[in-house]
Amino acid sequence: MVRAMFTRIAGRYDLMNSLMTGGRHHAWRRVAAEAIAAATPGPVLDLATGTADLALAVRALDPARHVIGADFSEGMLHAAMEKSAVRAARLPLVGADALALPFRDKTFAAVTSAFLLRNLEDLAAGLTEMRRVTIPGGRVVSLEITRPAMPGWSQLFGLYFHKVVPAVGAMVARDRTAYTYLPASVDRFLTPDELAALMRKVGYGDVSYRRLGLGTIAVHIATV
After folding, report:
1. 65-107, pLDDT tens digit by residue?
2. In the chain, fewer beta carbons within 10 Å around the N or the C end?
3. What does the radius of gyration of the chain's CA atoms come to, in whole angstroms?
């Protein structure tokens, strides 16, 4: 269901992200890219690469890095391929399921993802796979939407997310279902503290996170 949904909205995905965030999603990806740029030398895997914005942000900060984008949505990979070609980035793209990555153990210096984790059927298994393919001392960086904790703002954000976003999704992406799924997936996802605790439980070290976007975005950084 999730694969089919992301394939349906791939053509309007970038436009919807810009409309929903006022264009701030690029700045949030740069924060994640900066965390990856500080990792030990070696290749980087951008998991659930979507239209490749985060992978391209990593490449822009560190042109010498070998960055691979992986996604299980054919539509997203096609959009990423077109964007990579336009920017002459020659970004390698791979079809891959985050719960069964087609890479050997200890392959990457870093693994990153944007807006992936809340879509995983088994979050602990996905985190374990990311750790498996990362070299000892490498980094795993996750960018994810989260519920803001500030009283008042939390309620206002919830109103926007549950009422305005599906309506815009219906008009722009012609897919109300996908943009109703989005806030629902955030509602049932872990808090930043809970996600950090789970990352430690499955074996990560030095787990930290930073909130962005008035508390609506969390960037988690962990070492392997």
Report:
1. 999 999 999 999 999 999 988 777 789 999 999 999 999 999 9
2. N
3. 16
Residues in the chain: 224
Residues of 208-221 as b/e, b for ≥16 C-beta within 10 angstroms?
ebeebbebbbbbbb
Q: Which domains does the chain have, with CATH numbers?
A: 2-149+190-223 (3.40.50.150)
Question: What are the beta bridge partners of residue 179?
Answer: none
Distance, CA of 86 to CA of 59 (rounded, Å): 15
Q: What is the pLDDT of residues 2-16, one digit of tens each?
A: 999 999 999 999 999
Contact 83, 112 (CB under 8 A): no
pLDDT of residue 190: 97
| Helix residue spans in the chain (DSSP H) | 2-9, 13-21, 25-37, 53-61, 74-86, 123-132, 153-159, 165-168, 176-187, 192-201
Distances from the Cα of 148 to the Cαs of 58, 157, 217, in angstroms? 27, 8, 8
CB-based contacts of 21: which residues, under 8 Å, 6+ apart?
28, 213
Asked whether the whole model's pTM tops 0.90, one would answer: yes
Side chain identity at residue 80, one-letter code: A
- In sequence order, the 6+-apart residues with CB closer than 8 A to the CB of 50 are 6, 13, 71, 73, 76, 79, 80, 114, 115
Sign of torsion over alpha carbons 2, 173, 18, 43: positive
